[in-house]
Structure formats: C-alpha cells, structure tokens
Specification:
The chain is mainly alpha-helical and 119 residues long. It is 88% helix and 0% strand. It is built from four helices and no strands. Helix 3 (53-63) crosses helix 4 (67-116). The chain is elongated.
C-alpha cells in the first residue's frame, strides 16, 4: 500500500470520526448548532480531501506542496473560522455578563435604599 493511499485512508477516517463526534455532541445538546455545523464542515472536508486525494495531489503538485499540507491548510482554515466565531461569542458573553452584573448592583442598591426609608 502506497503512502498516498495510507494518508488518504487516515485523513478520511479522521473526518468520519470528527463528523460522528460533532453529530453526537450536537444531538446531546453539548455543542451549539453553529459550532456543530463548523465541525461537521471540517470533518466533511477531511473526508472529501481523503477520498479525492488524487485531485488534491495534482493541485498540491502545481502549488509545490505535499497533499497532506494542502489538506491540513484547508482544515486549519476551518478551525480558524471556528476559533474566530468562538472569540466573537465569548466577547459578546462578557459584555452581557458585565451589563447584568451592573444591573444587579443597581437593583441591590435601590432595594437597600428603599429598605432604609421604610417606617
């Protein structure tokens, strides 16, 4: 078995595992829909890359890189997109938490003020 075939099998099996994992986690509610779709896309890209390593090989030769490098660059792009989305979500969550904390502090101060003025 050639190295190219072994790489294709390994890349495809990794993609199948990632697709399966993202489906299981999404189904159990442990992974939000948008992240599930992102991980599913990365897994499918691995499967397609593994199955189509012939055309990946021809593209990589024209670019002067190995097929594995080309597939990894594609996967890295998908992972980068997921990381950017995660960063955006976390930034929004921090602002929301800060606003809620300020609101609770203001409400607490108002309640204490009203309790002091009761007869």
């Amino acid at each position: 078995m050639s190295i190219l075939v072994r790489q294709a099998i390994l890349v495809s099996l990794t993609g199948v595992g990632l697709v399966g994992l993202s489906l299981v986690l999404s189904r159990r509610g442990l992974l939000s829909f948008r992240y599930g779709v992102g991980w599913l896309a990365v897994g499918l890209a691995l499967i397609v890359g593994g199955l189509g390593l012939g055309w990946v090989d021809s593209i990589s030769k024209s670019l002067g890189v190995t097929p594995t490098t080309l597939v990894l660059v594609g996967v890295a792009g998908g992972l980068l997109a997921i990381c950017v989305q995660l960063s955006i979500s976390l930034s929004g969550s921090r602002e929301h938490i800060r606003d809620l904390t300020e609101t609770v502090a203001l409400l607490d101060a108002r309640v204490q003020s009203l309790e002091m003025h009761e007869p």
